[in-house]
Amino acid sequence: MRVVDKLWDEEDFLQFVDIVIGAYPGMLDGSQPTKEQLKALFIHNQNNDEAIHYYGLWEENNLVGGMRLHDFEMNLLSKIIPVGGVGLVAVDLLRKKERIAKELIEHFFKAFLEKQVHFVALYPFRPDFYKKMGFGYGPKVHQYLVEPSSFPKGPTKKHLKYVTVQDQHKLADCYKRVTMKRHGMFLKTESELAAIFKNPQNYVIAVEKGDTIQGYIVFSFTKQSDTNFLLNNLVIKELIYETPEALLELSTFLNSQADQVARIEWNTQEENIHFFLGDVRNGSNDLIPSVYHASTVSGVGLMYRIINVRGFFEELKTHNFNNQTLTFKLTVEDSLLPENNQQIVMKTVDGNMTIVDNHKCDVEMIIDIAELSSLAMGVVTVQELFMLSKVKISNEQFIQKLHQLFYVYDKPMCITAF
User: Fold this and answer.
1) Which residues form the N-acetyltransferase domain (predicted)?
2) What span, in angstroms and rounded, lies between the C-alpha atoms of 275 and 252?
3) What average pLDDT is seen over the chain?
4) In angstroms, rounded to a whole number, what is the distance separating the alpha carbons of residues 307 and 339?
5) Per residue in 68-79, is it b (16+ CB within 10 Å) or e — as a string?
6) pLDDT at residue number 231
């Protein structure tokens, strides 16, 4: 018999650490001090951060897997909603391919459904595995590797200052203001904020005007060469800005690092940031036919899932669906959560949506929960899904109406790692 429950005592956590090291060998070297440090970190997180919870899966009193759950808050189309997160899903090396990870994820769903949370997210160890479990793709990340001179030089950097832990509340206020304006962003937890300043390799520089931080950058350096200590890259870990002026001052700082830095690595979800940069080539000198210069490496990562369709759309009662007027039947296919396998009739008048029962519909849309999750977040459009055969629409005359209804002008962005 299998049981999923919270990890409580030190022995549980130590066993979980062993499982984590086996599942993610690249993270740690497996030495005893490292295990002890990791165990202490996990216990500290659970005891001191109300948003973090560790769970294990036991079979016949043997711990065979575990995970870390997070209570997040996210900006969903200008409304802050609760979101469940899961990370560090790990299975004992001897117990792979025994559906343990699936049972952990099912418990993850259950835990947040019991909290009346309708939406969850994760970073996949394998996107195809979680796609089959109903998770839809989030925004892509684009990794730039450019010379410092590619960042525009502005008229000043006089408002730049180092930020220390004493000023972290100002940094947190800046991040929150940006989050409240940006669809998809997660509010920063206390432990997230603290981690920035606990890492001795991090530099934190902010644009401060008056007593207010209007933008900041968290970065570190990495060696570009094992034989030449003068060759280094600068890695941007977080770049937040409220105004064009704040971005330009931070850019001026990056531009001025040319004497010490060979390349700057910037991972961003901004699709059009190449309009801001100068030379966006990544130094490989590769050409993509016919003449497209290699600039970024892109990757899929964060994945979303609606675990209660009706509850999720109830969260959007105050959202205007682009002034559209349409009554449609939404038929959701969800092989993992039977309660989501349902039909919902949505009536939208001048963009205001209500869920109605037994109402005559203009059109029916049939969609898998994974694609619906991405569509609702604005990662993909109805028109794109239709052309890719990922949505069925009973009357093609209404494709454009549905496209406009679900269209999200500000694509989601999320820089929270978990």
Assistant:
1) 3-158
2) 16
3) 95
4) 9
5) bbbbbbbbbbee
6) 84
Domain annotation for the chain: domains and CATH numbers: 2-117 (3.40.630.30), 142-299 (3.40.630.30), 308-406 (3.30.1050.10)
SS3 content of the chain, % helix, strand, coil (to 5): 30, 35, 35
Q: What is the percent of the chain where pLDDT is above 90?
A: 93
- Measured between alpha carbons, how far is 344 from 27 in angstroms, rounded to an integer? 44
Q: Which residue has the tokens 């939406």?
A: 119
Helix (H, G, I), strand (E, B) or coil at 302: coil
Q: What is the pLDDT of residue 29?
A: 60
Contact 196, 227 (CB under 8 A): no
Q: In the block, which residue shows the tokens 């005359």?
A: 397
Tell me how long the chain is.
418
Task: Note the pLDDT tens digit of each residue in 41-67.
Answer: 999 999 999 999 999 999 999 999 999
Phi-psi region at 229: left, alpha or beta (left = phi > 0; alpha = psi -120 to 50): alpha
Q: What angle do CA 110, 114, 117 make, to 5 degrees?
A: 90
- Cis ω on the peptide bond leading into residue 290 (within 30° of 0)? yes
User: For residue range 104-132, what is the model confidence (pLDDT) as tens digits?
Assistant: 999 999 999 999 999 999 999 999 999 99
3-state secondary structure 163-180: CCHHHHHHHHHHHHHHHH
Could you give phi then psi for residue 321, rounded to 5 degrees? -85, 60
Residues 341 and 76: their CA atoms lie apart, in Å, by: 23
pLDDT at 282: 95
Examine the pLDDT at 27 and tell me if it is beyond 80: no
Q: At what angle do helices 32-48 and 10-23 cross, to 10 degrees?
A: 120
Q: Which two tokens stand for residue 273?
A: 């940031």
Q: Cα–Cα distance between 174 and 216 in angstroms, integer?
A: 8
pLDDT band at 310 (very low <50, low <70, confident <90, very high): very high
Note whether 90 and 67 are within 8 A (CB).
yes
pLDDT-derived band of residue 28, with 50, 70 and 90 as boundaries? low
| 232, containing H or E segment | strand 232-241
What lies within 8 Å, CB to CB, of 223 at 6+ separation is 229, 231, 232, 233
Alpha helices in 182-228 (DSSP H): 190-198
pLDDT tens profile 328-349: 999 999 999 999 999 999 999 9
